[in-house]
Amino acid sequence: MKTQIRSLKLLGFLSLIFVINISAQIQTVELPEPGFEERIEKAIDDIWIIDTHEHLAFEEKMLEQKKKGDFDFTHLFKKYIDDDLVSAGYLPMVQQMVNNKSLPLIDRWEILEPFWQATRNTGYARVVIIAARDLYGIKEINAESVEQLSQKINDSYQTGWYKKVLKDNAKIDLSIVDVGHVKPDHEFYYHVERFDRFISVFSASEINDLGKKYEVEIKNLDDFVVALGKAFQEGLDYGMIGVKSGLAYKREIIYENTTKTDAEAVFNKVFSEDKKPISFEEVKPLQDFMMHRVLDLAKEHDLPVQIHTGLHAGGKNEIRNSNPTLLTNLFNEYPNVKFCIFHSSYPYGAELSVLAKNYPNVFIDMCWSQVISPYYCERYLHEWLEAVPANKIMAFGGDYSHVESAYGHSVMARSVVAKVLTEKVKGGYITEDEAIKVAIRLLRDNALEIFKLKGKSRDLSRLPALSKAGYTHDFWQMVKTGSGLIRHWMVIGPFPIGTENFTEEPPPGFHKVYPPEKKINFTGSYAGESGRIRWQKVTTGKSGILDFKSMFHRGKAIVYAYAEVISPDKRKMKFTFGSDAGAKIWINGKLVYNEHAWRGLGMDADIFEVDLIKGKNRILVKVEDKMYNWEMMMRMIDLNNEIKVVEWQDYQPGTL
Ligand SMILES: [Zn+2]
Known about the structure:
With about 650 residues, this protein is an alpha/beta fold.
């Protein structure tokens, strides 16, 4: 027995050493100076938060409501603690009695009290405790304090209460509210709007209602899309800064990119058989189609899209419907739309980590989740800060309908962020200074940039190097819009490279003069590497990359590409070029580029300046290949899009 105890002690000692070693392994910066915990906490308490999500009833509305009846303690026991109370066995009829103000206050408290005691361990309950303590000075809600608490809540509802709670207490600079089509007071709020009604349709009457609302007579799917466009425009006119989707409450969040034909077939069916209920499976192609149209609009107007994932409020919903990995196709298909994935995807935090890590357009929004479980947030924030860039995490959105709880939530969010960052600093993972910068990002700057508030944004054009006049600026303008690329080419190949084992540098084919160097004759056919070869017309994809290997299914050869551009005048023009491997370029018959090299494609890797003549200018490129990829790209630095590229659209092989 004794030996066993001794060996257990030894095991404990060894595991202690092991733990110390593990934390030492990831220490990358010097350990902080004493007092860092307090300094980090203070710095985080000083941050003016951008609150990414609320459903707040505005103050005027609450003051109106107060005229109809006094507020009491039940004010603090609404969303979301009521979900936990129900989970603990608080029946709807009991809840109705507690909310019934005709019954004596103390009796109502006594009915609620056992459920409160059973539930007070949860994250939601922290909000109630913090709000009662900090805003009303009530340390313990019980039979002795409940009347005083009720009185204080009722007295607090005066003009200015929201300012006191949101600004003075919670230090929330702005809240992004999801309360419908509104024009909120921008001193406190900005807003997002939902277009879920255009997606979650099952019947002609729902469609017609939307038509009436937006004054579009709906006869077909196109009309319905027009109505959506009008609703969206109304949102823009009201200054909405994003789109919200709460459809995870209604359906699985897989939105396939269905064809218009498929969507139209469903639309027509819904329209013709209104009386018959239609199943979700039947109507899904239409719903999915409309989600994609909403995303088209978000893309067109560069608005972020907030999507509910994970836990549903109110219980009784299918959690598997709201797994964030179901959205992957949208992340791929809309790379320019910023997706703010809500609620830390509780309980899919690990999946969310992968999505936010891999997709530049996926952002973690921790709204609501800090009260669902502070520890979950701690655990995942630790993980996310190791796996995901810090500019992709927003750490606070209250998600409440009343300010007291938004305040309570903000206290919890600050404390979770402070705790995680303090631990990271303590272990030497980051410095104290870095930790504070990360906190400012998480609680403020990321939201400002993503929603483009207060003049902030992630637009790279704001960088001094890209905004001051010069070639870098001009080049950036072209690169960011993908413009200036020559995408229309005539191509002929493969011609022999002239060597088997590439012992000569360059290979003989690089300098051998093949027919295209003498004369461009699209009707001609020549002896190629493997039989007669002719010119063929090729249009590149958006990338502008002309991929010879996929054209010829072989390499170790020479290819020619030819393009014509029309200039309105005589001018100097910069071209950029990249090729795999080396290349020669002739403009109007003059050799302007001659570089043999076994290299990979670098986009815009080389730059050269050319004298263009008025009218047609001829560009001939010769590219060699040894192995692997065989490709090229060319771009004109033509800021005003004045040079036209000949598209060869009328050309048929052998007809020129
Ligand atoms: Zn919400």
